[in-house]
Amino acid sequence: MAAVTSQSSRRSRLGGLPTEMTSFVGRRHELAEAKRLLSQSRVVTLTGPGGVGKTRLALRVAAEVHRAFPDGVWVVDLAALDDPGVLSQTVAEALDVRDWSSKPSLEVLAERLRNKQMLIVLDNCEHLLQACAVLVATLTRETSDLRVLATSRQPLRVTGEQVFPVPTMALPDMGDRPPPPQSVAEYDAVRLFAERAVSVVPTFTVTEDNQETVERICRRLDGIPLAIELAAVRLRALSLDQLLDRLDQRFRLLTAGSRTALPRHRTLRALIDWSYDLCTEQERSLWARVSVFSGGLDLDAAEEVCSGEDIARDDVIDLVIRLVDKSILVADDDVSPMRYRLLDTIRHYGREQLAASGQEAAVRRRHRDYYRNLAAEMDRRLFGPEETACFLRLQREHANLRAALEYCFAEGDTDIGLRMATDLRNHWLNGYFMKEGRHWLDRGLTAEREPTGGRAMALSANAWLAIIQGKIDCADAMLTESRAIGERLGLDRVLGYASIFLGGIALFRGDSEKALACYGEALDRLRSAGDPLGEALTLVRLCVACSVLGDSSATMAYARRCIELCDAYKEHWLRSYAEIALGIEYWRRGDTARAADLEKKGLRSNTSYNNLLGVGLSCEVLSWIAATEKRHQRAGLLLGALQNIWGEMGIPMGSYAYLMRYHDECEALTRAAIGEAAFRGALAQGAKLSSEDAIAYALEEAAPKKERAEPPAEASPLTRRETEIAQLVAQGMSNKEIATTLVIAQRTAEGHIEHILGKLGFNSRTQIAVWVEEQKRSAEQQRAGAS
């Protein structure tokens, strides 16, 4: 099994750019400068202290330049990542790159991104500087059109990096004569304060009476955006004058009366100190305890982990609401149930307070126990109607699960860590987490060598992942040890799972007799152990194996048993695999209509789960069916689409790799039927289909979209880039606007326009615009004539 994805938005052009929870204020000059640097360099790093607005600026830049990147802009938030060893996997997950292979993750990333025109926003790099530098240097070296916009408190120091220190927000000059209120409000710092003030005092506005106080507040806060936002919240309880007075008091204490300007990092620290001081003891405790979470939390987790000592469980919800009101916790209502998070600067402050409280070890243990229990609970509930909700929950909590595992192994609780990694075996099977799963299982198996039932199950889980990666001999060795432990301890469940995967290895090696014996043993033992998931998993494999071996009656019987079992538990995932297996059998029997119906049913189901392996298997069988029905063009297109599916996984068919012979036979039959040239053309057309179009074509819900015919070379002397720029000229854009839109240097845009004028024999931009319109009319007339 593999996990569904909760982040379909990552497949969009904007690659998961988060929704702005508050308005973006000002920063016109900074936006322009960052975009200019990005047009000139493939790596731009926004630097500055915490709270200065690096992340907000980077996200706004990404949103404004996304049209220049056909393969999208993708955001990778590293704030919750502490282990540099899984940086590449984390980036792959954020970029929607799945990898089932055993290759190094960074190598796979470079391969997948080699021909992509995309922008990666690498946010919060400062605590992983070396690892981020290696990753960025490798990706930019191995690709040609990839660009990186990083945020960090320090530069990455990679070749070609452009560093842009993000300044604090603009402040009005303190002159003898105060400017009018509308003029003051044009300054970014004042505008930010005013907008955030309105959110807590709806009638607030900058007037002649209060403008000087507002200006002094913003100046006292050095124009630091986070400091301004934290201060504006105080207007719930204080007037402007009271707010300014308390800021003056606090900062005078910090500087001990010195007239020297207060360092900016101390300004923000002082304001966070003040926010902390204004909290009640319980609010401070919750703030500190919430800092142990990575990537956010929900209310259930807060109640379980943060209650105790001075906080009763029933008080947690009220404390959470109060911290949201004070802008300490950020509420995210885009998901259900609602989740909460701390801004990175505030989270680090909370961790300092937790360490100073002497409660850090106890809170981190509660965090570990909560996520250890969550992993076990999700594993128990996976086979049934809640499977989708379980997978989504695990994906949302991935950063916390990782933190809990890291704590286990760092503190010597390796037995707990190993059991937790084993319980998450189905979560690891998601293509994003395959390598990370093996990392944790390998780490636990290295540390825990006692021949226990926990080690035996971990060996089976790790072997399952290894088989999918094609590491057959490695998996065989782990399963042999697992089986030996199971026999010594008399553990049916251990022996059952070992037998499932040993059967798959036997089938892969061509030993069908041993495979069937292993599957039979697995079925008996797992039924005896009361493990319906393992039983259904075995029945699916028996279906496929018996079909491949030509035992039609046994195939049908096992399929019916699997479907009945899944229906009894209202389970759909493994049921879809039973339908795929049945489809293979009907195809082998020559009933291609029934086979296609079953494969399309399985394809729809696996598409809804975003299960790439299931989608690939269904498309495989549909290509075989098409070749059998002599629909060779369709077979060729599907084979072309499959190049992308299996390429995205890094290894074709996973643990069903023994079916590859049917793929090869289909390819040979199709090539022989339509000839090499036509076959290559069909492959190329299929490979150009998007995943959505490929699935629609496989389901026969839509024909493949025909590519717009390229005009003959003599029809236009312009290159593709020159044509694109000519069209922007026709829209009335200036050279600067064209450069910004395409994220190129202005001088590059000017050079292209000079070439366009020279090639067309023109001397004005107006002539270019007229020519573009004539080209459009000519193309429309050609299309009308063709139809």
UniProtKB/TrEMBL annotation:
SMART domains: HTH_LUXR
Domain HTH luxR-type residue range list: 711-776
Family annotation (InterPro entries): HTH_77 (IPR058852), NB-ARC (IPR002182), P-loop_NTPase (IPR027417), Sig_transdc_resp-reg_C-effctor (IPR016032), TPR-like_helical_dom_sf (IPR011990), Tscrpt_reg_LuxR_C (IPR000792), WH-like_DNA-bd_sf (IPR036388)
Domain of life: Bacteria
Protein name: LuxR C-terminal-related transcriptional regulator
Organism the protein comes from: Microtetraspora glauca
